[in-house]
Each structure stands twice: as structure tokens, then as C-alpha cells.
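*Target chain*
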Amino acid sequence: MRIILCAIFLIATFGNSFTQHYTWSKEDSLIGKNFINTVEQSLDLFYTEHTISNENIDSIIDALSYEKDFIPEFSDSVYCSRLKAMNELSPFHLDCNDATLNTIKFFAQKRRGFVRVVLGRSKLYFDMFEEKLSKHNLPIELKYLPVIESGLRPQVKSRAGAMGLWQFMYNTGKMFGLREDSYIDERMDPEKSTEAACQYLKKLYGIYNDWDLVLAAYNAGPGNVNKAIRRSGGKQTYWEIRPFLPSETQGYVPNFVAASYLLTHHIEHNIIPMEAPIHYIQVDTICLKKGLHMASISEVLEIDEEEIQKLNPVYKTGYIPTTQDPQCVYLPLRYTGQFLQLEDSIYRLEKARYPSEETIVNSKPNNGEQTKTYVYHKVRSGETLGNIALKYKVSVAEIQRINGLRSSKIYVGQRLKVKPGTTTNSSNRTTTRSRKKYYTVRSGDTFGEIAQKYRMSQSQLKRLNPRINISRLSIGQKIRIK
């Protein structure tokens, strides 16, 4: 909706200025593709003009008379003064002590490149973080937590197996609704993992009622924080229990303070952000009807496949599978209109290039008699019987039995029966049409949140509900979702 309003505003604004020196003719009317192209061009222009660029930062640094590679140094009193000003506006204890000062100086002098990189990456994530944190009534400063957890890299994996921007371990992610299978790891989904992190952080705050202790518990686990509290004699602040925490956690809050400080005061330290390839407001979602390879999208839309992968780290491979709730992909805004226009071409290419991996075949067709069906799977590189059994929720022994296998050896391209399908009667087959489904609006719901919940873009949900005023939903109102 915000996109449509922006587009209308821009077209109206540009139109007023153009009409002063241009006489319109009938052929100039914006209809069909011409209108869509104009809207998209106007949006691109709007986002370009309203996106903070490094030119603004350069002008400030010029005013400070800094040379290109100059590394400013400040007295401890200057650092403490800045931290004190930040402290006034924060529920965290951004203390100025030896631990925080040494960490700030280390990053300001020895890790300037890291600060530049995360500043650039922040353009894609910070707006979304702030939106989620605000929704859960959590401190906005928590947006700096993924900086020290992952360096804002959604695909990074720790030695312990933690994944994603917020570095969820498998069990913790599962506890907060993040699923994982052969194709999808929602710990690497920026939006879903952020939602899960908000829930986890809120739960931790409910236990400790202190944000510094929440940070310590996020890093070391509540068990280690509780042990440190007991060993300290019942102390209740991070700095008092810090000597009793694991060594990594002793540096965790100082790292958080340093990240908060440097991402706020990077200009004073002559640190220029890396140019951001894309900003959050320049990305939109498209929800898919069927399974699709990123290569098919890449070829038809003429977009680099690597760019699609970077925006969609939730998918482990280049394949976006079919699931009960449709999967969605993030694309640069300039390509979403093209996707909708060329959707049929994308699916035709997919069908031609990637034959279906799963087919249901009748084992013994018979006229008027019951026939047994099987689901078949075509073995791909790297797969084992164990992987395949897990995918179809059957045992390895069952796959071996129905395929007459004496060992677990399989080869690429082999077609395996993986499980029986339903028993059908060939003379009494009926087709059922998909039924419409509706969602009942609850208190606090917005149209955008409903679309996100059911894996649709707002425009797709709007097409199902053409008569609904999306800015004025009422409790109890029915929204069609299928």
C-alpha cells in the first residue's frame, strides 16, 4: 500500500512540473505496461533520492577536515561524555570503564574495516529490525546485537552450529518456531529469525528484568548466568557477576557497547560505510505457486542468481520447494513487476529444465478396480537413503523392502518408490476444487501482517479482497486468504 501511495504522489508531483512546458496528446496516456513502467521508474527515483548515500557522510567528514586514511584519537573523557549522552536515551548500562573503553578503541583503530562493512549491510536489515523491535516493545538498541553475533551475515555458521543473523542453535530455534529441513533453514530467514529473537529476548527480560543480564544470557545461556549470580553471592548486575561468567561472555557486553558506540559515532572516527548494494525499502516479496529454481527466475528476469541467493538465505540450495504454506522470495523492487508479468514464462522454463522430482504413478492400472499408487523419488547427487527416508517420513527398511534393495547403496538418477500413495477406485474418481479460506481479523492486526502470516505480498492478498479498505480493518472482519 505504501508503494502505491508513494507512486501516486510522485506521478502527481512530476506531472505538475511537466505540464508547465509540455502539451499532452492522446498518445501520451499512461495505460497498461506504460503505466506500470512509469510507476516503477518513479519508485526507483523516489528511493534513490530518499536513501542516505555516502555523499552526505563525505560532506560531514570534509567539514571535520579529516584526510582519507586519518584515524582520529580522543581522550577518555570524550568517549565517556558520548557514552553518557547515549546512556540517557537507553535502558542499557553503557558504562564507561576500562573494559568498554579498551574495546571501543580496539574496534576504532584495528577493526575499522569491520565497522565499514556492517554499516553498509545495516541498510538492508536495520529498518526491519527496528520495525520488529517496536512491534514487541523492545529497546531499539537491540538492533546492534546481530552486529556482534554475525556481523549481519545471515548465512554465517559458528563452530558450535549456531546459524543466521541472530545465531540460533538448532534446539533454541525450534523452540521459537524456526523450522529446518533439506531445503529450508529458517534460522537464516532474516524476518522470521528476527521475530524469534524478539520472542526470546522478551522471555529473557521476563526472567532477569535487566537488559545487560539479558545480553549475557543470550550469549551464555540462562543456566550460566544463574550460576554466576549464585557464585557472586547473589549480585544482580552484569558488572558484578562478570568475573564469574564464561570468558567469552565477559567480553560480550563490552562488544555490544562498542558496536552501539561506533555505529552511532562512526563519522567522528572517519569511518565511511561501505556502499550498500540494496536497501530494505528497495526489496519486496513474491509468493510462489509452485516449487522453483532460482536459476529459472534469474534467466527470465535477467537478474544475477547470486543476488537472489543473497536476498533469500533461508533456502539452503538454489531450489525453492513447494510447501503447504506457499514459499516467498525477496526480490529487488524493480524486478517484482517483471516477475508478475512473466510468471507463466518462468514456470514454463522451470518445467522444461527441471522435470518434477516427485510423481505419483499407478502400479497396476485396472478398469473399475482399486489400484495402488506409489510416490517415486529421483535420486540426486549427495543424497542417501537416510536423507530420502527422513524427507518422506518413512524408514530406510521400508524403502529397501518396496524397491527390493539388499543394501543402502543408491546411485544418482535412480528412481525409487518411497511410499505407497492412496488406494483409489479408477471408475469413481472425482475432482475437488480448492475451497476458499478466510481469516478473521483480530485486535491489532494490519493488512501487511496478515499477508506476511500467510506468505503473500500485500498486492496478492489485495487481489483476493478487492473490495476491502486495507487501511481500515475492523475486528471480526473476514479476509480471504485462499
Remarks:
- The chain has 22 helices and eleven strands.
- The domain at 358-425 is CATH 3.10.350.10 (Membrane-bound Lytic Murein Transglycosylase D; Chain A).
